[in-house]
Amino acid sequence: MVDNTGEAMDTSSMLKEAHGQQHGRLVKNLLDAKEEMEAKGDDKVGGGAIEEPDDKGGGIILGKKSKAGAAAGGKLPSKSEVNALRASIQTLCQSSNPLGRCLEYVQEDLEAMGKELESWRAQRHRRVGELADEEATTASALSGLKAELEAVEEKIREKQAQIRFTKGAILRNDAQVERLLSQVVRA
Q1: Has residue 18 got a pLDDT over 50?
Q2: Distance CA 52, CA 135 (A)
Q3: Which end of the chain is more exposed for a tag (fewer CB within 10 A), N or C?
Q4: Inter-residue contact 48 to 62 (CB < 8 Å)
Q5: Residue 73 pLDDT > 90, yes or no?
Q6: Cα Rg for the chain, rounded, in angstroms?
Q7: How far apart (Å, rounded) are the C-alpha atoms in residues 165 and 163?
Q8: Residue 126 counted as domain residue
Q9: Number of domains in the chain
Q10: How confident is the model over 90-137, as pLDDT tens digits?
Q11: Spatial CB neighbours of 60, under 8 Å, sequence gap ≥ 6
């Protein structure tokens, strides 16, 4: 096994029982997997998995399988390749962790936004009711004023008719006075 710096690590202590106690299930599974890998041999250690994108657009390529390399016993990754891979994985984790933290709060935000939407809908419903009440109150208050306004407008029309009638009478009287004066002057 290799540690964080790419150096070989002694794993023999994992095989021993600690203070005479049995290992837990996880440790047993790890030890069994390690033994299986060691039993298969070193020819698969260097062959690594390949992640090749279908569209040649990019992706992480861990290693290339080659039939010649597998037949020759495989090649262990160099320290620089391991460090480059470690740096790439570290960058990927640093980039994806903030997104993961944000996604944790999405459900809470959706619930809060849903509650806020419901409160706004309830407030809108209340305000629509209040508006209808105010419109009804205003209409009832205006109905009396509209009737009064109509009565005042009718009085104005009557007064204007009286004024026109009086102006007509004045004009007729002026004409009659002029006619009488012209008869007196002639006579």
Answers
A1: no
A2: 70
A3: C
A4: yes
A5: no
A6: 51
A7: 5
A8: no
A9: 1
A10: 888 888 888 877 777 787 888 889 999 999 999 999 999 999 999 999
A11: 51, 88, 92
More reliable by pLDDT, 8 or 140: 140
In a domain, 117, yes or no: no
Q: In the prediction, which pLDDT does 13 show?
A: 53
Q: With contact defined as beta carbons under 8 Å apart, do 32 and 38 qualify? A: no
The one-character DSSP state at 2 is B
What average pLDDT does the structure give for the chain?
77
Determine, yes or no, domain membership for 32. Answer: yes
Distance, CA of 38 to CA of 45 (rounded, Å): 9
0.85 exceeded by pTM: no
Q: What is the DSSP letter of 45?
A: T
Angstrom distance (rounded) from CA 140 to CA 132: 12
Looking at the domain assignment, is residue 20 inside a domain?
yes
Q: Residue 75 has what DSSP assignment?
A: -
Which residues face 2 on adjacent strands? 8
At position 41, the amino acid (one-letter code) is G
Residue-wise pLDDT tens digits, 46-59: 444 444 444 455 55
| Domain, as residue range, for 25 | 10-43
